[in-house]
Amino acid sequence: MFVLFFAVWVLLNGRLNWEVAAFGAGLSAALYLFCCRFMHYSIKRDWDTIKRLPRLAVLFAVLVWEIVKACFALLPFIYTRKEPDPVVARFTTDRVKSETGRVFLANCITMTPGTITGSLKDGEYLVHCLDRSMAVGLDSSRFVEKLEKWEDM
Fold first, then answer.
1. How far apart are CA 47 and CA 70, in angstroms?
2. Phi-psi category of 14—alpha, beta or left, where left has phi over 0 and alpha has psi -120 to 50?
3. Is 12 exposed, middle or buried (0-12, 13-18, 19+ CB in 10 A)?
4. CA–CA distances in Å: residue 80 to residues 4, 36, 60, 74
5. Is the pTM of this model over 0.85?
6. Which residues of 25-58 are buried (b: 16+ CB within 10 A; e: fewer)?
7. Do 139 and 102 contact (CB within 8 A), yes or no?
8. Distance between CA 118 and CA 125 in Å, rounded?
């Protein structure tokens, strides 16, 4: 977090010399200490976040790939005027345990074209799918697999 504060300081300042660096380092350190004291940040928490970044990058790549696949799956509905068979799917997954992971899964489902997460309550998802084929395997998707690995770290 300290590095992020310092980088923002340098970007907002527009130049980097020893005075800007020294003042920015002091200001960033003070802001980081404030966050540690009152917002429950810690060096251990920051280190855990840094260790999770590669898996988060993999999850982002999977999200982009699933978005591309979903776009191609929607093409027949657009160009052939094929009638979709919309369905509301309800599922739960025990593989994603944290609230952050569950919300992340709901957002990944919503960002994928053709599906919208309507509700997430007590680990139960309510997802509207444009076609019945899009509802198959929501509870065991690649998102769930990658989030499970991300949480295990």
1. 35
2. left
3. exposed
4. 49, 57, 31, 10
5. no
6. eeebeebbeebbeeeebeeeebeeeeeeeebeee
7. no
8. 8
**Pairing, β 87-92 against β 115-121:** unpaired
Those residues with Cβ within 8 angstroms of residue 110's Cβ, 6 or more apart along the chain or in another chain: 116, 117
Whether the CB-CB separation of 9 and 27 falls below 8 Å is answered with yes
* 31 — pLDDT class (breaks 50, 70, 90): very high
pLDDT digits (tens, 9 = 90+) for 33-77: 998 888 888 888 888 878 888 888 888 999 999 999 999 989 988
In angstroms, the CA 136 to CA 90 distance is: 11
